[in-house]
Records
---
Amino acid sequence: MGNEGKGLLFLDPVCKHNIWGGVKLREEFGYQVEGNDIGECWGISAHPEGDGTIRNGEYQGKKLSELWTEHPELFGNLQYDRYPLLTKIIDAQDDLSIQVHPDDAYARENENGSLGKTECWYIMGCRENATIVIGHNAKTEAELKEMVGEGRWTELIREIPIRKGDFIQIDPGTVHAIKADTLILETQQNSAITYRLYDYGRLQNGKPRELHIDKSLDVITVPAKSAEESVESISNLPENALNQIYTCEKYTVFKIDVNGSAAFEQGYPFLAASVLEGEGSVNGTEVRKGDHFIIPNGYGKVEMNGNMSLILSTVEK
Ligand code: ZN
């Protein structure tokens, strides 16, 4: 395969309107979408609720889901029945409702064969002294049920401090929520199954949004992983190297901070890449903050120049 940047698959993302969204994804990242309630950019997605479109080259105009089906060789001929990942940028201008996701086994049985949802967050930006909701304070299943039943939310919900450059893995069963003024890059399984546990008693159009208490109680892990184990700072990685920051059964995530030039071999089934900050080039093709692209299977040597930070992800063969 030619190495002139031609083989890169750039995506036109799908943006989402959310009551907690804002204007940053248009004004800072340049996504062409109207409205002052833009909460999510599904940058690399083949999900039916937001299937990205190839922006360039011989596959221009194709949906990512179509490309996955018609050209499995671009992704290393993997044994998955759909493109396995979903990469999003989330701009929260208000607190999100507190949620939990099921694992594959629970989702298969209770959600029409959907995948469960394991996800992880890289904190791209937040206010000073910011916090995030991760985990809970119930020690036993019985205590969890009691606290939920009695509405002892402030006692139950665990908030922990975060800073730009933190990485957070959210296994199925983890209670979690983003607070206002937080910008994140999310890498997750290709799934949209979410159970809403608590919405701070807020109303939308005069009514509370639906909660999924029973399903939440079914899937919440008790006790939760410790606060210390939940957040990891990755703000001091070596420059110009493809740093693996996390790997689990569902994905492997990398970060690269290019300052000058960097090169690595694309030896993975595929690499899904998002430019978080700055600008530069990939094998001669210009990229900037907000661009999302896939480096296909067999691409060979990847050469990056400029001043930019990217998060990349792939899956096991
Ligand atoms: Zn989630």
---
Amino acid sequence: MRLVLLGAPGSGKGTQAKLLKKEFNIPHISTGDLLRGAIADKTELGLAAKIVMDKGQLVNDDIVLGMLKQRLAQADAKKGFILDGFPRNLVQADMLDKLLEEINMPAQHAILIAVDPEEVVGRIAKRAEIEGRTDDTQEVVRDRIKIYEKETAPVVEHYKQHDILSEVLGTGSIEQVQHRILSVLRF
Ligand code: AMP
């Protein structure tokens, strides 16, 4: 199973990806997590990325692609993957198509978890209390949503044109959303 998960910040992508990882026994690859890992390791790249991330902006395409390429080269990704947080714009969508073509592992499904922007702000406020992410402050969240709408939403169209896009409703319980995703994948 080679799956790309799409959705606004706070749409529940990460939560659903973790459940899908268990269900299909394939890695959950989150570029946000890879970047946060680099920050925790205090690498040069991580320190530079933190400045951009804390403002809610997107990290340089080539840097994120490089991290993703390394991650996809690891043995566990040979059986498939759930991509969460990449691609974030149309340039990355093209980069990803090329990369996956090169390694002969094209994406099979792209799933958009659709949520109301109003709901997203409330969900992220809750996450901020639990996880303490420095980019989950109200002001930064608003910027991240704006960037999502401008840069990432067009990626949905990209996958529609590739005929692999499905949309599921992201409202309701975690289990309900998971059930909707599994129904799409098992169809
Ligand atoms: P996320 O955990 O997916 O919400 O990502 C957190 C932050 O990491 C984003 O707001 C960006 O600053 C950065 N980031 C994650 N994935 C990407 C990506 N594919 N391209 C650029 N920046 C990214």
---
Amino acid sequence: MKVNFTETVLRDANQSLIATRMPFSDFKPVLEKLDKAGYYSLECWGGATFDSCLRYLNEDPWERLRNIRKACPNTKLQMLLRGQNLLGYKHYPDDVVRAFIRKSVENGIDIIRIFDALNDVRNIEVAVDETLKCGAHASGTICYTLSPIHNLESYVKLAKEIEALGVQSICIKDMAGIMSPKEGYDLVKALKANVKVPIVVHTHSTTGLGFMTLLKCVEAGADVIDSAISCFSGGTSQPATETLVYTLKQYGYDVDVDENICKEINDFFKPIRAKALDSGLLNPVVMGTQTDALIYQIPGGMLSNLVAQLTAQNKLDKLDEVLLETPRVREDLGYPPLVTPMSQMVGVQATANVLAGERYKNISKEVKSYIKGEYGKAPGKVSEELQKLVLGEEKPYTGRFADTLAPGMEEAKAYLGSKATCEEDVLSYIAFPTQAEAFFEKREADRKNTFSYTITRID
Ligand code: CO
């Protein structure tokens, strides 16, 4: 049995441990080794990398991608894309989604992992369609969550719908690290029995289940697993690549990843890790195991957000009440997976309900949009009472939300004029307007500081 590895150090590990603040110049020298290590793919783009490049690192994200491509000609490059939301949380019109994907592939992406926070397949279908049209690999995604309406049957049904879009693989995305070894094993078994495409498993080490879960998923037939080179693994990041390679080889699995090259890659990242620890960018707390998420069945990150919110308002004594209210709000909203932005939406509303001493006295703008159908279809039934409170006698929108949006590319192009030097710039602007404009200005200023000259031949 073959097990393939996706290395996440350049994207999810970087995002989960050091808030995506690793500049290209830091990891450039190791790209050649990453390309030779025998990974199935390198997750290196999308997610928060794009925003972070523009906002904090003064890097053109497209240029970063082209540079990685140049240095890694032999390994598939992978990105994470939030379906119709691209790299953010709002819905973009189809022409923008298609242009973004076309340019991602043109600049070097081979595999696009496409997900929707609500597992609403309509929110990933255009992205999948365009990825396939561009000749790239579309990996459809199941956001894994626990609730009374999520079970093997519902996940198999979802996987079949995703497979019907024509994807080349399906990823189980356990963003909170709450999928147990047993749940992972059962789910992979069920999917392998019902869909034909390869199954990818993505989890996090947050609760400490990660290694066990991945091992059991592989036993159940998972084809690809995500891992991070050891010194950027563990805690809120992925389980360690070397440890998994060691274990799986011992069990006789066919693994292409080369331990010796892994050692060199890890040695390369050690000083980068040490520097991040020194500067405080890497907080030792996120490296540990946090099991509270298993008791409350909510992601660790969400729990710490709730604590922070209550602490800021000097109301930490209300934490137990908020923790009881959180699953009730989630139930009212039809059990959305607790992934961004739903995790914040549920947590903030639960806190508001407790602090006001009255449920839904104040309702956040986001919850209102959600009830109106602007995020997509709720996985389960939304509370009728809450629906009435927000909509009165109106009915929620049940279509695909992007169908209500006017095309966006031409308008953005016209607005930017000469500030945009290429279509990639226009897409950067659409994705992150403020950050992109600031970046363009700085780039223009830098450009004016350089000089050029013509050669006068003297011969
Ligand atoms: Co992740």
